[in-house]
Write a sequence for this structure.
């Protein structure tokens, strides 16, 4: 047993992790996903997915179950952090051109992961069956109905026009089963690719010498421990000072006017509301299509000055546009 | 020439009742009348008689039914000639018993006795510009009723002749009902007509006061009838609700009433007075518990919004207290005691829970502080280990640094 442990430590010392800060960001995303999975499973122990019991089970979980409030708050804030870290991870990969050969598939898998993760956030909002979740989902339903094939989407995934028991069960199934399975498969594939092909560092992109790889054990793991501890402190502070809220029980007869979506949905929400119909959905689809095609559009390893400028300007413009859309939707 | 002039004048009068020429000489009346509810289907001659087509004094010919300004004593019957006719009133949906009611009213009875200073239809509704009661400019719109009644009932000289006070309208305006009507604009707030009746206006007599107040305060009436004051009223020893609450100047019911009104009938050391004091104590203690709980909740809510979840429970306590308020009219101490005890115990339970939330949240913060101490300690140890390892791996760089 001890010998096996020693072998493992020696293997860890031999294995190096490239990529500097990017590796920590990716690892942190992986750890936060694990946190979400663990807290999600604990929540499932108490949650009852029915219109009659969902709210009360969430209330009991928050008020009466030992540390239930902490688990729920960590799940909620952990998810926000997960989306933020995933976005930062994607942005840093873009600017370091980490999507180039042989990382094209890793990049595409990463984007799919981000989409599925945010979809989990959407389905999770309804589950407490409180006023915010109910009317936010209703607002999203109306938005989806306005886009082309929106009614077909609603019929397939929603089960019709009403928000009731059926929708809650569908959202629950998607949130705890379909999406996590997809995320798990994609995550394994994504991490395997990273393990196999490594990470392209920003220094390489800038033409600087590649930084010395960090041994997995103990250097990388010690550094990661520091990052994880500080992140845990941040999450716990958010959970204590801003515990996950629970508004009134969902009431179909008392509408909330225009409930504000979560911050990561604000840009898409604003776009769909402003442009309406086909233009809005085409814009969103085009944006993600371009993201997928980035490795094809920028395939050559060498980059001329103007191409570099173009790539970085487009990246900055996309981020600025996304942020501005979000701020505008928030202010409206 | 005269034909042309006549045609012109007829054209001028063509709005409202087109054929009538009265507006030619009475333009102000015509303008007033054009806003009236009657303008749609009645003309001047409907009330005044005469010839609407004639342009000279011929139109005022008695032979053509002209009656001029109707006599005050005839006005109710004149209006009733249409308003008591179910066939004519069917389209407007108006009741046809106003005249019958009026005849039973204090106003109607005095008019029948030859007193023409009492109110007739036109005093409240106007003569030419008769607006529907739902129109805010109408003198019979609910917010204008006290002013309309006050036109006569605030006239000290006139009221003195009937031995009536002239301050009712003024008192009403500052009463709990007046505040509800004018300040809070409560849709169910009463006006003069709610208690006295509109067309059948009369002062509620002893014996019917509790029924009148009970239209709105049904629970209070129900419990009053169960209590010992019912018999006192039946024996003519008290004026029901008015004995304690007054009539036009009814104030917001206050626990101080137990200190004043009970003693107007009962000696201070009597059993009845002490029962009143007991009621006061029970209600005051429950009220104070609810107030304290609401204040504590509001204070804690600023820091811990999750205490909102106790609001429905506090509402339950308030419901018990609100139930005790009408029950007090039965003077049944045991029932009031039960209800106020429930209200108090729930309020105290909620208060304890709210304190518990505040306490738990404090504990969470202490726990968080301990976690941060642990994190900083571990990060410090890890950083130290990392630096030591860097020094061992690269002693030259470390020495230079």
């Amino acid at each position: 047993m001890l010998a096996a442990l020693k072998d493992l430590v020696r293997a860890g010392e031999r294995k190096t992790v490239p990529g500097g800060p990017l590796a920590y960001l990716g690892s942190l995303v992986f750890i936060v996903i694990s946190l979400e999975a663990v807290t999600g499973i604990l929540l499932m122990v108490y949650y009852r997915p029915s219109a009659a019991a969902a709210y009360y089970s969430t209330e009991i979980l928050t008020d009466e179950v030992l540390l239930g409030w902490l688990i729920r708050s960590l799940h909620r804030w952990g998810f926000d952090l997960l989306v933020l870290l995933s976005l930062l991870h994607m942005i840093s990969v873009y600017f370091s051109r980490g999507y180039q050969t042989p990382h094209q598939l890793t990049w595409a898998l990463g984007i799919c992961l981000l989409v599925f993760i945010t979809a989990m956030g959407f389905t999770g909002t309804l589950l407490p069956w409180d006023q915010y979740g109910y009317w936010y989902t209703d607002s999203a339903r109306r938005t989806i109905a306005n886009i082309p094939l929106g009614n077909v989407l609603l019929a397939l995934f929603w089960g019709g026009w009403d928000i009731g028991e059926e929708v809650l069960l569908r959202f629950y199934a998607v949130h705890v089963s379909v999406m996590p399975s997809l995320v798990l498969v994609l995550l394994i594939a994504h991490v395997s690719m990273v393990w196999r092909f490594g990470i392209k560092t920003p220094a390489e992109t800038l033409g600087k010498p590649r930084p010395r790889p960090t041994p997995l054990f103990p250097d990388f793991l010690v550094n990661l421990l520091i990052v994880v501890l500080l992140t845990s402190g941040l999450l716990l502070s958010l959970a204590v000072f801003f515990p996950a809220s629970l508004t009134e029980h969902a009431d179909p007869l008392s509408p909330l006017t225009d409930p504000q979506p979560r911050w990561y949905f604000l840009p898409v929400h604003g776009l769909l509301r402003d442009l309406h119909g086909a233009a809005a959905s085409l814009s969103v689809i085009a944006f993600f299509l371009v993201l997928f095609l980035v490795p094809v559009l920028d395939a050559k390893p060498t980059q001329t000055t103007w191409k570099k400028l173009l790539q970085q300007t487009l990246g900055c413009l996309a981020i600025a546009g996304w942020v501005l859309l979000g701020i505008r939707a928030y202010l409206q | 020439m005269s034909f042309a002039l006549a045609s012109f004048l007829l054209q001028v009068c063509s709005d409202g009742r087109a054929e009538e020429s009265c507006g030619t000489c009475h333009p102000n009346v015509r303008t007033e009348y054009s806003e009236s509810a009657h303008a749609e289907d009645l003309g001047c001659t409907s009330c005044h008689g005469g010839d609407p087509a004639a342009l000279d004094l011929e139109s005022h010919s008695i032979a053509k039914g002209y009656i001029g300004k109707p006599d005050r004593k005839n006005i109710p019957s004149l209006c009733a000639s249409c308003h008591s006719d179910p066939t004519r009133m069917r389209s407007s949906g108006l009741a046809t018993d106003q005249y019958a009611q009026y005849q039973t009213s204090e106003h109607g009875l005095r008019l029948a006795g030859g007193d023409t200073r009492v109110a007739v239809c036109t005093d409240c509704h106007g003569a030419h510009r008769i607006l529907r009661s739902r129109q805010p400019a109408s003198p019979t719109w609910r917010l204008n009723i006290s002013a309309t009644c006050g036109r006569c009932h605030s006239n000290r000289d006139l009221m003195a002749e009937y031995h009536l006070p002239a301050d009712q309208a003024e008192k009403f305006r500052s009463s709990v009902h007046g505040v509800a009507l004018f300040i809070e604009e409560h849709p169910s707030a009463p006006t003069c007509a709610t208690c006295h009746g509109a067309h059948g206006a009369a002062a509620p007599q002893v014996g019917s006061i509790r029924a009148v107040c009970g239209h709105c305060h049904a629970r209070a009436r129900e419990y009053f009838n169960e209590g010992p004051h019912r018999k006192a009223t039946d024996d003519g020893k008290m004026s029901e609700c008015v004995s304690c609450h007054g009539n036009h100047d009814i104030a917001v019911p206050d626990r101080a009433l137990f200190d004043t009104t009970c003693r107007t009938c009962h000696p201070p050391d009597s059993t009845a007075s002490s029962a009143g004091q007991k009621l006061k104590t029970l209600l005051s203690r429950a009220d104070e518990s609810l107030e304290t709980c609401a204040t504590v909740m509001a204070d804690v809510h600023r820091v811990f919004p999750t205490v909102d979840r106790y609001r429905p429970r506090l509402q339950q306590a308030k419901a018990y207290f609100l139930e005790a308020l009408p029950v007090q009219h039965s003077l049944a101490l045991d029932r009031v005691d039960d209800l106020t005890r429930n209200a108090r115990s729930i309020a105290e339970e909620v208060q304890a829970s709210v304190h518990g939330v505040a306490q738990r949240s404090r504990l969470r913060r202490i726990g968080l502080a301990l976690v941060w101490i642990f994190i900083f300690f571990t990060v410090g140890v890890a950083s130290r280990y990392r630096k030591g390892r860097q020094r061992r791996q690269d002693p030259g760089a470390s020495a230079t640094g």
About this structure: The first helix of chain B runs from residue 2 to 12. Chain B is about 60% helix and 0% strand. Residues 1-18 of chain B have pLDDT under 50 and may be disordered. Chain B touches chain A through 18 residues (CB under 8 Å).
